[in-house]
């Protein structure tokens, strides 16, 4: 029953959380191998009370494991995921490399667990912003059929890795001290600023991050008739993404009915008591495996619409936790 | 030709900018009177190379001026604006007290300057988030008729005054130093966090700030058929509001045509060169009287729609500058 696991990109912000999620969720691990680039090789990482030495990821030394969790960027996944899969291992890939590949399932376990069964050695973990949104869209779509979604995101810097988190901290100190901000990871100053630019710009004026929300949502909900548009914005928050989401449905849902449907969704918590100023916040979601939804109200601009606010820890449900949950489906 | 001016709330974040805007825009001022609560009376404020002593705002000492710029909250406006207007002065009120009063014009000078002429002694300055949005909506509505708008805001703390700006600074230092955040002005921690709650909550689940965007937009554009919904969010930015706005129109507009129309709007600057990572940013808009728009693209989710991103300094065009521009209409 125990599975041998490799984590590729083990020293990154998501990789570190993948190892913690395996421990926290008591995944039945046999041997655990931690892999990373040459630069991080020989680093020691604690796991299960012991210490693992990080190994260099090399074509001529693909480890023999049952499941490999990848979070080392799309280029690494494109090159190495097929090599791991070729050795009979199942790769759960957190990069964008295979997400829209029709042969690769794109899975959020609470939403489309059945899809995971049809894999050919690779299962893709969706984009962080998409995961937390589809958890909310799923029960609404089942009950009232979603026609269109307009999403605006408030994304924390941790989605861009350790260096981005360090940049926000250092830059914030500099700005408070009256020093100039020196952007390196982000294209502009992120301290006390919002940047409407995540991922590269595409021909149609959208960013890659925005089109991920458009395309991945349809694939996961298995319905290409759902129209989605998104504007994705980086905000000076360390961890946890917020999303203001407007949903138009075919059938009318009252706010009360929507709250009821959302409360029935596993790993989704409704926090929606305006009178007590209770709604989801990034600082409260940090470190939690759940996704949180609130500000649920009937849209005053259309007959059948809802407005709501979703928050989740982008390194957990948005990445590591969802990947480990996919691994749990394979047990 | 010179006008005697009173600024009510002269020591507040917006009041201070009103005085600066009168100077910067070379408004033909005669005497300038600065008024505030008892607490701020006797403070000295620089104006035009001289010094003004702040006077206490009192019912039995309404100054004899031509124009009064109010920014001291709705309660003060409700009580004092009619007293000023009763003495033949024109009040330009930055609070929400009279905005939806059918006898009071609600004016953005580039959008509906004609409305200012029909005043009965009071002209209302719209909400900051509304002003920067209608500057963009106006040319699009004229060319293609707007059916529906979905707005999500990224609002800086300065909209809540000096104390809010100090809270963001102090709290950010505390959090960086590993100390607990102590919220006072905001209902929750604002340092490295986003709060989807601006203004009081209403029966329909929206906040006051959100319903201002819904109702004021229709009044300024003089078209109740425009459907608007909004989610307003406070972000840890000092000055400058961002807005992700989705617009559905009756007629199709290409992104190129929209860019052309927006470029023709006075005091609105198009910054839209994705290839160079150029789009509006709060830190660039700070201190500027203009409003900035970018990320203009055709919405992939509908036949006739646009997505775009608007930024403006909420203390300037969102408050002080717009108020002084209304005063200029009265000359």
CATH topology assignment of the largest domain in chain A: Dihydrodipicolinate Reductase, domain 2
Gross CATH architecture of the largest domain in chain A = 2-Layer Sandwich
Provide the CATH superfamily of the largest domain in chain A.
Dihydrodipicolinate Reductase, domain 2
Shape of chain A: globular
How far is it from the N-terminal to the C-terminal residue of chain A, by CA? 7 Å
Biggest sheet features of chain A: 6 strands, parallel
Query: What is the rounded Rg of chain A?
Result: 20 Å
Report on the architecture of this protein.
By secondary structure, the first copy, chain A, is α/β, with parallel strands linked by helices. Chain A folds into two domains: 3-125 and 319-329, NAD(P)-binding Rossmann-like Domain (Rossmann fold, 3-Layer(aba) Sandwich), CATH 3.40.50; 130-314, 2-Layer Sandwich (Dihydrodipicolinate Reductase, domain 2), CATH 3.30.360.10. In chain A, helix 1 (13-24) packs across helix 9 and helix 4 crosses helix 6. Chain A is globular, with a radius of gyration of 20 Å. The N and C termini of chain A lie close together (7 Å). Chain A has helices at residues 13-24, 74-86, 113-116, 128-144, 162-176, 208-221, 255-263, 282-285, 316-329; strands at residues 3-8, 29-36, 44-47, 50-53, 55-56, 67-70, 90-93, 122-124, 146-155, 227-234, 241-249, 268-270, 291-298, 305-312. A six-stranded parallel beta sheet of chain A has the order 5-2-1-6-7-8, with helices on both faces. Chain A has a six-stranded mixed beta sheet with strand order 10-9-11-14-13-12. A two-stranded antiparallel ribbon of chain A has the order 3-4. Chains A and B meet through strand 9, helix 5, strand 10, strand 11 and strand 13 of A and strand 9, helix 4, strand 10, strand 11 and strand 13 of B.
């Amino acid at each position: 029953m125990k599975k041998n696991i490799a984590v590729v990109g083990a020293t990154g912000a998501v990789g570190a959380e993948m190892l913690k999620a395996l421990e926290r969720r008591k995944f039945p691990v046999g041997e655990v191998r931690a892999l990373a680039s040459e630069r991080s090789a020989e680093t020691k990482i604690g796991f299960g009370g012991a210490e693992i030495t990080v190994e260099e990821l090399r074509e001529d030394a693909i480890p023999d494991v049952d499941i490999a969790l990848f979070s080392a960027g799309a280029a690494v996944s494109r090159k190495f995921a097929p090599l791991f899969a070729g050795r009979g291992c199942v790769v759960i890939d957190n990069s964008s490399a295979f997400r829209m590949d029709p042969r690769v399932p794109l899975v959020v376990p609470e939403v489309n667990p059945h899809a995971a069964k049809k894999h050919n050695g690779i299962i893709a973990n969706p984009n962080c912003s998409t995961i937390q949104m589809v958890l909310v869209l799923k029960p609404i779509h089942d009950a009232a059929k979603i026609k269109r979604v307009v999403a605006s995101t408030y994304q924390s810097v941790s989605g861009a890795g350790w260096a981005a988190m360090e940049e926000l901290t250092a830059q914030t100190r500099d700005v408070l001290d009256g020093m100039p901000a020196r952007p390196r990871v982000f294209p502009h100053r992120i301290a006390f600023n919002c940047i409407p630019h995540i991922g590269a710009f595409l021909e149609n004026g959208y960013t890659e991050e925005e089109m991920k929300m458009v395309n991945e949502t349809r694939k996961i909900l298995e319905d290409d008739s759902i129209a989605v548009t998104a504007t994705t914005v980086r905000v000076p928050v360390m961890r946890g993404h917020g999303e203001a989401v407007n949903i138009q449905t075919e059938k009318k849902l009252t706010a009360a009915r929507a709250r009821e449907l959302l409360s029935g969704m596993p790993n989704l918590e409704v926090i929606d008591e305006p009178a007590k100023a209770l709604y989801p916040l990034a600082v409260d979601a940090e470190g939690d495996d759940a996704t949180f939804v609130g500000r649920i109200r009937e849209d005053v601009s259309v007959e059948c619409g809802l407005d709501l606010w979703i928050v989740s820890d982008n390194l957990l449900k948005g990445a590591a936790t969802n990947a480990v949950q996919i691994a749990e489906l394979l047990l």
